[in-house]
């Protein structure tokens, strides 16, 4: 082939734009390559800045109150009416039809849209006011109740998404449509990592005991990098002999052999990058180098045998079983100690369309002790003040029964119009309840908090203006909060 024709084929549109404009993507990549830190100056030229791994932000937009986030995501939609939003009126009017004046024509899922009636049902579980804050917390969460004065309980969350996949995607990426970067990827891109030997964004999964069949699936795109460079995607840690897949050397290959192979591979990839200028080539080089360093750091952080007995007692007996929520909470604390910026825990099993009283009891037992232990463990180590802990799901549950209502059993459908989450540490006011819902637990009456408001507040606590952390893609500047979102200043210290 004519060399000029071959060259024109290699220069695709992406490569051409990368060469002519360098771009934020190259800056993000350069900031995370190897043991050195790189940055783009105001002319777009990549320069070395010294040791450490940094993101593309030249500086924080304002002083940060949090350095890291541990997000305990409860997949499936926990019922706020059984956990944090006490509504005695639902007990008094049990079995009565939901008034149309309350529902106001809100759309329903296909699972209850065909019901002839919508019988109101209150929780079968007692509530009590806890601590000096006086927050109402269900007896289902006795350990969480003990730390009520450490929590900021937000009872006025709302979302537009009414089904699981778009609702979870909305919380994790800021869009109901897949393809956007996840929260952890945005933070990796913007802030980098405090540890050169571990990823900035780590993911841990656990299955609940409250609904063993039909749990909502979780897709890896929820911790994906979207249109950011693949270096920023979340790294999943598994409860297995190989915590991170494809990390160990194959049999017969030692460390020296691996190092020699990576050096040769880097030379080949660098030659290819010089030719085609595809930033993903350098992302792959950086990923190989990170994997090499993780071969020693991951076994160390995953080895919990050295934890004292009182720690296991604090997190509960499940902490001894790899892959459980309790074990993952303990690992999350260890990852936070090592400088991991964003630690995402997913706990499945909260989708209680039927058999709710029985199933939610098991589900709450899975997470209650370990969630409270994580908060107190961070506090006793002096880490809670700069670690933001978040607990919550993608939406709430209806105040009426899905299907047959009996004296001992009922279910609840999806309810996006109001639900509860809690936060602790990281610059959030402790011991407060924010927002209110009506006496039916159906609509918000005070201080609504949208998903994008929540995301904007989270970034604010990390020192980031959510409107300024952007990435230009397909001719538009994208951000986590899309085109809306306001910082909820009333809950901040």
What are the main properties of this structure?
493 residues; alpha/beta; Alkaline Phosphatase, subunit A; 15 helices; 19 strands
How would you concisely characterize the structure shown here?
The protein is of the alpha/beta class and 493 residues long.
Description:
With 493 residues, the protein is of the alpha/beta class. It has a single domain, classed as Alkaline Phosphatase, subunit A. The chain is built from 15 helices and 19 strands. The chain has helices spanning 3-10, 13-21, 23-31, 80-83, 88-92, 100-103, 142-146, 164-173, 183-191, 255-276, 279-302, 309-315, 325-337, 356-380, 451-461, and strands spanning 36-40, 46-51, 68-75, 127-130, 135-138, 151-158, 201-207, 235-237, 342-348, 387-392, 396-397, 414-415, 419-424, 432-434, 436-437, 444-446, 449-450, 471-473, 476-478. Strands 3, 6, 7, 8, 9, 10, 13, 14 and 17 form a 9-stranded mixed β-sheet that branches. A hairpin with a 5-residue loop joins strand 1 (36-40) and strand 2 (46-51). Helix 10 runs antiparallel to helix 11 (279-302). The radius of gyration is 24 Å and the shape is globular.
């Amino acid at each position: 082939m004519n060399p000029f024709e071959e060259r024109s084929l290699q220069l695709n549109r992406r490569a051409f734009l990368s060469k002519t404009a360098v771009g934020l993507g190259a800056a993000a990549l350069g900031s995370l390559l190897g043991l050195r830190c790189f940055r783009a100056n105001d002319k777009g030229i990549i320069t070395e800045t010294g040791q450490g791994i940094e993101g593309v932000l030249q500086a924080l937009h304002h002083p940060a109150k949090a350095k890291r986030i541990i997000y305990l995501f409860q997949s499936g939609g926990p019922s706020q009416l059984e956990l944090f939003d006490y509504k005695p009126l639902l007990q008094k009017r049990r079995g009565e039809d939901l008034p149309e004046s309350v529902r106001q024509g809100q759309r329903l899922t296909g699972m209850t849209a065909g019901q002839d009636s919508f019988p109101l049902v209150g929780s079968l579980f007692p509530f009590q006011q806890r601590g000096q804050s006086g927050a109402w917390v269900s007896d289902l969460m006795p350990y969480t109740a003990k730390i009520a004065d450490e929590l900021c309980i937000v009872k006025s969350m709302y979302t537009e998404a009414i089904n699981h996949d778009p609702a979870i995607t909305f919380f994790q990426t800021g869009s109901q449509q897949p393809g956007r970067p996840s929260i952890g990827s945005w933070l990796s891109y913007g802030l980098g990592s405090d540890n050169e030997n571990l990823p900035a964004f780590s993911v841990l999964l656990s299955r609940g005991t409250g609904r063993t069949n039909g749990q909502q699936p979780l897709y890896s795109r929820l911790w994906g990098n979207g249109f950011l460079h693949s270096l920023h995607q979340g790294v999943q840690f598994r409860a297995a002999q190989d915590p991170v897949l494809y990390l160990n050397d194959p049999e017969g290959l030692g460390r020296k052999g691996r190092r020699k192979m990576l050096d040769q591979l880097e030379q080949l990839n660098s030659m290819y990058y010089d030719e085609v200028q595809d930033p993903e080539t350098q992302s792959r080089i950086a990923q190989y180098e990170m994997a090499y360093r993780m071969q020693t750091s991951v076994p160390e952080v995953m080895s919990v045998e050295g934890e004292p007995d009182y720690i296991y007692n604090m997190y509960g007996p499940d902490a001894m079983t790899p892959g459980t929520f309790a074990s993952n909470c303990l690992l999350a604390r260890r990852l936070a100690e090592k400088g991991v910026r964003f630690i995402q825990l997913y706990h499945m099993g909260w989708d209680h369309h039927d058999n709710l009283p029985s199933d939610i009891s098991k589900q709450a037992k899975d997470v209650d002790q370990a969630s409270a232990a994580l908060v107190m463990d961070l506090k006793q180590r002096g880490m809670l003040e700069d670690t933001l802990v978040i607990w919550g799901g993608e939406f709430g549950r209806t105040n009426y029964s899905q299907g047959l209502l009996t004296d001992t059993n009922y279910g609840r459908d999806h309810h996006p119009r109001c639900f509860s989450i809690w936060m602790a540490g990281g610059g959030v006011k402790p011991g407060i309840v924010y927002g209110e819902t009506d006496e039916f637990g159906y609509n918000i009456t005070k201080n609504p908090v949208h998903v994008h408001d929540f995301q904007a507040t989270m970034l604010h606590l990390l020192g980031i203006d959510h409107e300024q952390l952007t990435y230009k893609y397909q001719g538009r500047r994208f951000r986590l909060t899309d085109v809306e979102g306001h910082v909820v200043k009333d809950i901040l210290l």
